[in-house]
Design brief:
Largest sheet: 8 strands, parallel
Number of strands: 44
CATH class of the largest domain: Alpha Beta
Number of helices: 14
Helix content: 10-25%
Strand content: 25-35%
CATH superfamily of the largest domain: Glycosidases
Distance between the termini: 99 Å
Number of domains: 5
Shape: globular
Length: 746
């Protein structure tokens, strides 16, 4: 009798701080407070209980409980007896409960997302939702079974080796108990009996099947999957079966031409994804995972960075089925802990063991932005251990790392993995959009043999915020769109980039943030947190990446317009767009991706863009004054066409808020004032993630040429007129360094 698998998601009693409720799994206690800012966010321990009848068991059968995700640490008890602990909130773990079972049982799971110094993540720009937020299963297995205790894996590894039109598929199995024989079969390709070897009570099986004229897994064009079944026999009967899907493909990373799939250049047009959504937290249903995948595919993406942790097995399955190329990683992020090494090793072993057979995955990432507070020898050693572990466990994929944009490019940490990416936010947190271009040009010139990709980039936007004159730091949908227009143009002229990943496909929970009047969220998503609205920036990607014909009018949420002549911008993958205003032909344009029309307005107007059988419509209206809802600070509305009152009055020979950072730092008093301002900015930036960061020389040069006022806007500092005026008056008392030197010489 082969194994029986039963989901046990219903009838759980949940206890938090003495209050008890009945819940169904998946469940998180941070579905709301993890998305509303730091004040209410609960990090601590809660308890889940469930009554459990002992199942009918044949002689020797074993009972396991399988937990697909409990964040961040779990303690499992049966009838008051502790059976297991697990540290790591994103991977599957199993508990053998056979010996603890009575006729009637009480199962208890203590889930704990409280801060500690041993389990990753502890500091990151996303919410650490607590709870049993993925499915739980009961598995009844024969005493002879494929190993259920090996880091949550299936006990069945499949490795395909493609050569031209043919492939050899190699198998490894891990089992416990007696094994008379193990047979692996692939429908349409044949079967093989594995050679068995028993070591220390475990049986290891190895074998292979050749597949001539193999049907390759070929990305979104043809994501073909084979299925292999491994059957374990004892006494002439199959007592355990496992089935795994796999794909046959080959890939490589080239420092000059980027990513190759099955021998052809295949640029990775990627997005990053967090696993949560509004009002749900991370306790997603399968339907929600499917909706996420459909939105990503409809935009034309062919790759996903599954950040910053192991995702649900079902989503990896979807990536296999849809042909998505995947970057997989563990949550070793932001700040290295000397006491967390064993946890990084365990999480990497679980990630690889549980996901080895997924055709979609091409790399195992060691860490993300781990150098925020510097690179120590303990951090380097931890990464060397992980890098070696990746190569030991999987010789078919590469190691990778996403580097903080503050990390110097000559750091040994950058050179350690097989491929690397940088997370750059020029044009949002610091610098200009064009600084992204400069960074990669200089990197590629200096390291021409190094494969480099862009693993994060983005700009926050709240869809209610609009502007005809968008500028960085304003959180408008308008600026986000302009930013991504530039980034796509930049990618097109740099084919050596092996992949690019928008941060982020969806808005997500970030409990430490309090920005743009909507706390507890990161707003860089191209789609809103509830998945209900696609921002304009979504459509510029669709224009570059998707083959599905479409026309999109930007600015549909910018209804009330104060300008006399307004820009109507259209995104499309068609080459000719016709614009109608109030039903009358206004103009036609030929081009690519972005079409701009200057339209005079004097009342309410109906706008329609048409091309290739597609169309989009919107209404706009001439307004006498700016709409307050288009601004972050509704009580401080300024006209876009008037200079703000606190525009930095310049006193000849003295500093002002319009002075560059370099000019201010050149004076002793100015440098002291600036240090205080920057200290407060880094604590605020990205929910406090910037605190303690070291600024490298290359970025210091970028920052130095910026006016202080621009940096304040980008850094998220409050810009009330009174505070700006006060700061400007203080600077007006400090003589510029060059003036001081001239005075001293005179």
């Amino acid at each position: 009798m082969v194994r029986i698998v039963k989901k046990i998601n219903e009838q759980w009693e949940f206890e938090k701080q003495g209050e008890r409720t009945l819940v169904s799994l998946p469940h998180t206690w941070n579905a709301e407070d993890g998305q509303t800012g730091p004040a209410l966010y609960y990090r601590g321990a809660c308890t889940y209980r469930r009554r459990l009848k002992k199942p009918a068991l044949a002689s020797g059968q074993q009972v396991y409980l399988e937990f697909r995700g409990v964040n961040s640490s779990a303690l499992v008890r049966m009838n008051g007896k502790e059976l297991a602990r697990h540290d790591g909130g994103y991977s599957t773990f199993r508990v053998n409960v056979t010996d603890a079972l009575e006729e009637d049982n009480t199962l208890e799971v203590l889930a704990d997302n409280a801060p500690n110094d041993r389990v990753y993540p502890q500091r990151a720009d996303f919410t650490f939702y607590g709870g049993i937020y993925r499915d739980v299963y009961m598995i009844i297995a024969d005493s002879s079974h494929f190993d259920l205790d090996d880091h949550g894996g299936s006990g069945f590894r499949i490795t395909s080796e493609v050569s031209g039109d043919n492939a050899v598929v190699r198998f490894e199995t891990y089992s416990v108990g007696e094994a008379e024989k193990i047979v692996v079969s692939i429908p349409g390709a044949g079967e093989t009996e594995l050679a068995l070897e028993t070591v220390d009570g475990k049986t290891y099986g190895r074998g292979s099947i050749a597949i001539p004229d193999v049907h390759k897994w070929d990305g979104v064009e043809d994501p073909y999957l084979y299925e292999a079944t491994a059957a374990l026999y004892r006494g002439g009967v199959a007592v355990d079966l496992v089935r795994e899907r796999f794909g046959c493909r080959e890939f490589r990373f080239d420092a000059e031409e980027g990513f190759f799939l099955n021998g052809r250049r295949y640029p990775l047009h990627g997005v990053s994804r967090h696993q949560d959504r509004l009002g749900v937290g991370n306790a997603l249903t399968r339907k929600m995972h499917e909706e996420d995948m459909e939105l990503i595919l409809s935009m034309g993406a062919n790759s996903i960075r599954l950040a910053h942790y192991q995702h649900d097995q079902y989503f990896y399955d979807l990536c296999d089925e849809k042909g998505i190329v995947v970057w997989a990683e563990i949550p070793y992020i932001t700040v290295h802990m000397d006491t967390g090494r064993e946890n990084t090793i365990r999480q990497m072993k679980e990630l690889i063991t549980q996901n080895y057979n997924h055709a979609s995955i091409v790399c195992w990432a060691l860490s993300n932005e781990i150098s925020l507070q510097g690179v120590t020898e303990d951090l380097m050693e931890n990464h060397r251990i992980l890098n070696d572990l990746v190569h030991e466990m999987d010789k078919t994929r590469v190691s990778a790392m996403a580097n903080l944009f503050l990390l110097e490019t000559d750091s040994p940490l950058v050179r350690l993995p097989d491929i690397r990416g940088y997370n750059l936010y020029y044009g949002w947190y610091v610098g200009e959009m064009e600084d992204n271009d400069t960074f990669f040009d200089e990197f590629h010139e200096k390291y021409p043999d190094t494969a480099i990709g862009l693993t994060e980039y983005g700009a926050d936007s709240v869809i209610t915020l609009q502007s005809p004159k968008p500028e960085k730091g304003d959180y408008t949908e308008s600026y986000q769109a302009v930013y991504h227009e530039h980034m796509l143009e930049m990618f097109a002229s740099r084919p050596y980039l092996w992949g690019t990943y928008v941060w982020n496909m969806f808005e997500f929970g970030a409990a430490g943030r309090n920005e743009a009047g909507d706390p507890g969220k990161n707003h860089k998503g191209l789609v809103t947190f509830d998945r209900q609205q696609k921002k304009d920036a979504y459509y510029i990607y669709k224009a570059w990446w998707s083959r599905e014909k479409f026309v999109h009018l930007c600015g549909s949420r910018y209804h009330d317009r104060v300008e006399d002549t307004t820009e109507i911008k259209v995104y499309s993958n068609l080459e000719k767009i016709t614009l109608y205003v109030d039903g009358r032909l206004f103009a036609q344009q030929e081009g690519q991706h972005v079409f701009r029309f200057q339209v005079p307005i004097d009342g309410v107007h109906q706008i329609r863009a048409v091309g290739g059988g597609c169309e989009d419509c919107m209404e706009i209206a001439k307004a006498d004054a700016p709409n307050p809802s288009y601004f972050m600070s509704h009580d401080k509305v300024r006209n876009w066409f008037d200079a703000p009152q606190a525009n930095g009055e310049d006193r000849e020979g003295y500093l002002s808020i319009n002075s560059t950072m370099a000019q201010i730092q050149a004076t002793e008093q100015g440098a002291a004032l600036l240090a205080d301002i920057l200290g407060r900015m880094t604590k605020k930036a990205a929910g406090g993630m910037g605190e303690g960061a070291a600024i490298p020389e290359a970025m210091q040069k970028i920052v130095a040429r910026q006016p202080l006022k621009k940096l304040l806007q980008q850094g998220g500092m409050e810009l009330e007129e009174e505070k700006l005026e006060e700061l400007n008056r203080a600077l007006n008392q400090i003589r510029k360094a060059e003036v001081q030197k001239e005075s001293e010489r005179g």
